[in-house]
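help with this:

***
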Amino acid sequence: MAYLALDLGAGSGRAIVGFIENGKVHLDEVHRFSNPPTGLGDTLYWDFLSLFSNIKEGIRLAVKKGYTLEGIAIDTWGVDFGLIDKSGHLLSNPVCYRDRRTEGMSAVASGSVSAEELYAITGIQQMEINSVFQLLSLKQKEDPVLSIAGKLLFTPDLINYFLTGVACNEYTIASTSQLLDARTRHWSKAVFDKLDLPYRLMGNIIYPCNLIGKLRNEIAEETGADGINVFSVGSHDTASAIAAIPANGKDWAFLSSGTWSLLGVTTDRPVLTEEARKNDFTNEGGVDDKILFMRNITGLWLLQRLIDEWEKAGEECAYAHLFSECNNAEPFRSIINSDNPAFTHPASMTEAIREYCRNTGQAIPVSKGALVRCVLESLAVKYYFVMARLQECTGLEIKHIFVVGGGSRNELLNQYIADALNMEVITGLTEATAVGNIIQQAIAGKQIQDLKEGHNIIKNSFEQKIYYPANTKKWTDAITEKKQLFQ
């Protein structure tokens, strides 16, 4: 049995075939494509038509390569959504979470529901990119699209709808919206009522490892993939990535390392304390009835933007070259707080970092190596402070951290994390999201029994690499010196 994982990020997407053979999961990437947001007028959209066309191409190429697919499943980034009318037509390209339409919406919402009350219900970190504020912005502007909309479908739900004709909202992606009750795991009527938002738009909640429906006939004919199941998985990519971690007990944490960093633990129940809210922790839905109690942190976005600038200027920016320069740069000269608003939408990330260092009385990084070292060391220091708050809020004693996602390939960053946090850092699941997606499809397709069996397969399939703490005294001194930047 082969399964197709469609793993879509805010920038690129991939179609990856996975199959389980001789107790191991095997992956084959059959299609990769770009998925950048597109500005039109004063709005930043996702090009859903191009996205869906590439999804169909991924299916077609998997079939062309000779795979007999048992299932397909989608995972994407969180919060963004599309609206369809009562006839099932897409009313507009979905708007990107980086669009400015939500600016000030948190303050507008506070007039009807306090941040404390909203957190007590939803358990979600208050960020203006959240779906609740996107929906509120449409209401505030009296956008006519709301009056004709029939359903709100988050990005993976929207794709599943056009693949199958079945409109529903998957739990893990719905949990990112700040519209879901964290305890009941259903839509919060109280939040909709207090903000006067259209509750009628919300659909039935479905959970991972279930069948959504069959591929539409016209898509089956177009791709050659006849009679294929479309399964629900943890359609928030973070949920699928964390589901792939083969860990036991309560002494471990996860770090999903990419454009965003998500640092947290899995729990059985949400943590809805005021302490958790004040420390910006969020309770998002996980696979296998778990809650992902974690903090969203601006991550390798900073490095990505630096590299984009250097590439556009025609400068040398191969990773090997940059990391070699980084190693030669002086340590701990410049530390930044990646969550500072200065780094959200800067015209130039290089200048934003330099200006931050200038304003905080630090050495200004000039060379590429110094800038890269600044970013990587700063992320490790940020993780240190978030980890301290995480352990305080949960009462857990964390001994090791699993790093998954693209950032897990960054050996310098991984060693910095081990040094700064003084704990073992375990990597090896660079394709955690796709692996988690495939394993959940195998459960839904009844090839394997449960996630426990899936974890045994994953252990057999991928070799772990462990980074051990070193130079901890130097890191402790640097963290003590820079702590005022993170208070």
